[in-house]
Amino acid sequence: MNVCFFGGGNISQAIIAGLLKGGGFPAGSIACIERNTSKIQSLKSKGILILKIDELTKHQFDLIILAVKPKDALDATKQILIHAPNANIISTVAGITADKYPNTATIIRSMPNTASEFKKGITALYTKDINKSSFKKAIKFFEHIGHVLVMKDEAEMHSFTSVIGSGQAFLFKILEVYLTEFKKLSKGVDVSATEIFKNFVYSLGDQFNQDPDFDSLINKIKSPNGTTQAGIESLENNNVEMIIKEAFKAATNRSAEISNEN
Length: 262
Prior knowledge:
Blueprint: E1 3-6, H1 10-20, E2 30-33, H2 37-45, E3 49-51, E4 63-66, H3 70-83, E5 89-91, E6 107-111, E7 121-126, H4 133-143, E8 146-150, H5 156-185, H6 193-210, H7 214-221, H8 227-237, H9 240-261
Parallel strand pairs: 1-2, 1-4, 2-3, 4-5, 5-6, 7-8
Antiparallel strand pairs: 6-7
Helix pairs in contact: 5-9
């Protein structure tokens, strides 16, 4: 499979890194259209072919992955279709519905996340015709970097963008608070606080892998009338669940707003 990324930003870099891990997807099968010099150098160092937009006419790609800012997405699609009118385009752009793009029939919407870099990504896919060959290629492509979920309703993409796309950043924000507090306690420790904290984060995944039940995991730490019980009650009294759900809601609403802006 030969693919071309239109845009070499964070999500493209994450997907490409995941594709190249383990040698399952050769660098020679990947091209990118990008103008930023530092990004070009980074991509070239991985063996990625750098193209100009008008060079699309010289190549045959199975998929073109559109990875630009929402404000640039529709113009970029028009440029792609000028030079590759039969292109199968996968949009990674949040918010913009398929019917907003020129030549809607060619568009497959996707929402990958940055865990794709570690081949642990979760990607939502949507198209109006799930039986077309390009959609099957899209599924196969994203399975190289993790799990694929097919959305039956395009409106679900807004929620997926919030929970899986943006949700990692919400968790990172919470973990940032942990690390800040830990650094206050770790003065004088020979190993850096950040290195110790990495093991703490890894252990969360290990514990969940062993027992994927949050109540059970909490009860293993909590004792009646103990310190953990006091902290949990504080979180509940401050309605931490509602705070997180409001963050999801805000991201979902913003995804819908982006759709209406374009």
